[in-house]
Amino acid sequence: MSQQIAHLEKKIGVKLFRRDKHSVELTNAGTVFLKDAKEILKRLDDSIANAKQAEEGVIGTLNIGLLSVPARDFLPQLIRKFRRKHPQVNIRLNYYHIGQMIEKLKSDELDIAFTLSLGLQSIVDWNTRLYGLSPIASFCIKTTRLLIEPV
User: Fold this and answer.
1) What would the pLDDT profile of 28-51 be if each residue is shown by its tens digit?
2) Ranges for the HTH lysR-type domain (predicted)?
3) What is the rounded CA–CA span in Å between residue 113 and residue 98?
4) Residues 62-82, mean pLDDT to the nearest whole number
5) C-alpha torsion angle, residues 46, 50, 56, 59 (rounded to 10)
6) What phi, psi does 72 have (nearest 5°)?
7) What sign results for the dihedral spanned by CA atoms 32, 37, 43, 46?
8) How many CA within 13 A on the CB side of residue 134?
């Protein structure tokens, strides 16, 4: 241990301890160094814990891609519920046209997207889930059916 301390003192160029035959005590430089070293070790422990939490999705940023119309009704409630469960995750909402959104998804700039299914079926690696249906979104719907839909 004393060799390691001597090596450290030589490396940083200051005496960390005052030694005599009966005692060893920290010098002023040693006290400052010890305080800083403890803070660094604490930050290291915190950084490791944060990295593990980020890997698990407990902290970090969730980038969400949106088309303005489809998500308007359900998204605020969904975000509130998510924030209650994951308060340390920042949510970034990004509004795009469908073509932009597909490009952002392909380049991994988005974690999740709420969109129409246009063109997404051909992309095999993506996990997709149907969240809801809207008769207004149907291209096959008859105009007479739209007349009875609530506004």
Assistant:
1) 999 999 999 999 999 999 999 989
2) 1-27
3) 10
4) 78
5) 130
6) -55, -40
7) negative
8) 14
d(CA 2, CA 149): 83
Q: What is the 3-state secondary structure (H, E, C) of 110-140?
A: CCEEECCCCCCCCCCCCCCCCCCCCHHHCCC
Tokens of 64: 């969400």
Q: What residue ranges define each of the domains in the chain, with the CATH number in brackets?
A: 2-55 (1.10.10), 60-147 (3.40.190.10)
Can you give the three-state secondary structure of 31-86, one letter per residue? HHHHHHHHHHHHHHHHHHHHHHHHHHCCCEEEEEEECHHHHCCCHHHHHHHHHHHC
The count of residues in the chain is 151
Summary mean pLDDT of the chain: 79
Give the pLDDT band (50/70/90) at residue 12: very high
Query: What whole-number distance in Å separates Cα of residue 42 and Cα of residue 52?
Result: 16
> Is 106 in contact with 122 (CB distance < 8 Å)?
no
Burial of 60: CB neighbours in 10 Å, binned 0-12, 13-18, 19+? middle
Contact 112, 65 (CB under 8 A): yes
Q: What is the pLDDT of residues 90-144, one digit of tens each?
A: 899 888 888 888 888 888 898 888 776 655 555 545 555 555 545 444 444 444 5
